[in-house]
Write a structure and sequence with these properties.
two-stranded antiparallel sheet; globular
Length: 333
């Protein structure tokens, strides 16, 4: 009887163990939910994202320093007070925003980030190249006209109005795009067992199509800066604009080709392209003016500088006629 009881107990224990093991086998094993990293991922590491963030912060800081330096050195000068230099400040602000836009391609995508990407890509490019186009057009106009034939539409208000008019098509296109297709993020399941990630709902083709108006502005800037290259006005700024727009076009073509013809991830390619574009404009357009101002010891030297080499912008034409040259070559327009 004792043997029979022990056998029954052994069988019950064995049955319970088998039932427990079968229940564990039937329960699916789910991997713990992983929260996406705030930094975009490239082949399992984020060194490119950290590099982009550091370079973008340094570039934005450089834009702020240049802007404050221009305000300090140029606004104390009589010639500067009589000048329309809002175009340079708008371009500098656009470069600052472009450095900031690079962060949008480092932060993990969601609806707000995707909206910032779509709005900023076209608008910030237009904010840089619309004033650059106006600069090239003004230098070209004064290089082929006599001083007395120039129109008074060269002050800060007029140039700001022209810049807004050039920005209106881009603003309308962006608002219409956001209205028809709201920004969204989608879940992407990569092959090879990698964890799922999120990406914006726009495609590379949509991104390139959003820059068509910017390409038109860049083409016009290239054309008018080439026509104005023989002019020495404003420290030969038309030549710097020509060189800058050529490098900018090459930079845009390069990162677009990387997106369409290679398998490089989209976020690092665009982020690096934005950094290169902003750096080209700052180095080629603004640093020569900073170097010129640094060579001047004080504001009295700035007063004696020929107007054709003023680094801030273009004179509005309100100086006394005895204080300026009648030659368009020496007129800081």
């Amino acid at each position: 009887m004792d043997r029979l009881g022990m056998s029954v107990v052994f069988l019950l224990v064995l049955a319970l163990l088998c039932q427990q093991s079968s229940a564990q086998t039937a329960t699916p094993t789910t991997a713990p939910a992983t929260t996406p990293d705030i930094l975009s991922d490239l082949t399992g590491a984020t060194p490119w994202a950290l590099a982009v963030m550091i370079i973008a912060a340094q570039g934005a800081l450089l834009c702020i320093i240049i802007g404050f330096y221009f305000c300090y050195r140029l606004d104390n000068s009589f010639k500067s007070r009589e000048s329309a230099h809002c175009l340079g400040y708008i371009m500098l602000f656009g470069c600052f925003l472009m450095y900031g836009l690079a962060y949008a391609y480092v932060i993990h995508p969601h609806e707000i980030v995707c909206g910032v990407r779509r709005v900023g890509m076209g608008f910030i490019h237009a904010l840089i190249f619309a004033p650059m186009l106006l600069k090239a057009v003004r230098i070209w106009r004064v290089s082929r006209r006599d001083l007395d034939e120039l129109t008074p539409m060269s002050g800060n208000r007029a140039q700001l109005l022209f810049t807004v008019l050039l920005l209106l098509p881009e603003i309308v296109a962006v608002v219409q795009w956001l209205w028809i297709v709201p920004p969204s993020a989608k879940i992407v399941y990569p092959s090879g067992g990698d964890p799922a990630t999120t990406a914006c709902g726009t495609t590379t083709q949509d991104l390139i199509m959003s820059l068509i108006y910017v390409m038109f502005l860049m083409f016009l800037t290239l054309l008018f800066s080439l026509l104005a290259c023989p002019s020495d006005l404003n420290m030969s700024e038309s030549r710097f604009i020509f060189v800058g727009i050529v490098f900018s076009i090459g930079c845009m073509v390069a990162w677009m080709c990387c997106l369409k013809l290679t398998d490089f991830p989209e976020d690092p390619v665009i982020a690096i392209g934005l950094l290169c574009m902003a750096t080209i404009v700052v180095v080629i357009i603004f640093l020569p003016k900073v170097c010129l101002l640094c060579r001047l010891s004080d504001d009295e030297d700035l007063e004696e500088l020929p107007m054709s080499y003023m680094p801030n912008g273009y004179s509005s034409g309100t100086l006394d006629r005895e204080q300026r040259s009648y030659s368009p070559r020496n007129y800081d327009y």
